Amino acid sequence: MSSGVAEARLFYPTGSGAERGTELSALLRSLGVKPARDGAVAEAIRQGFPVTVVDRLAKELEIPLQRLLRIIALPSATLARRRAKKRLSPQESDRLYRVVAAWAAALRLFEGDADAARRWLNEPARALGGRTPLENLDTEAGADEVRDLIGRLEHGVVT
Length: 159
Prior knowledge:
By secondary structure, the chain is an all-alpha fold. 63% of the residues lie in helices and 0% in strands. The protein has one domain (3-154). Helix 7 packs across helix 8 (114-122).
């Protein structure tokens, strides 16, 4: 089990929006994003996430780095340039944040069971037109659909 899951597991399951924000902040910290305070994630995105978050998230999700790069629309050559600067752009950080937020929500859905959350993120979902939740995170509209699906599943609405 990776350190991010171990730290995140301390916070699952929960209910309120404030608790969910704390869970997500803890997961971000475990990946190397250090917001000045809880709720300061937008500022961390504006400053640009450390480039190491990309590698850590791919490892946490147990997916090839190239697959994560496709989802966040970050060419390998651009990643190589970002490694020299040590920071992603705000736009790249925002796209990466979508994936982190979905990972946190999937962990919450599966009560901290990282293996079950990973399987779910990688299985085609009828409610997503046969796409996997992870594939659907390539756009904000797709991320909205994933969030909606997770909400329905949390409330027992069969899809």
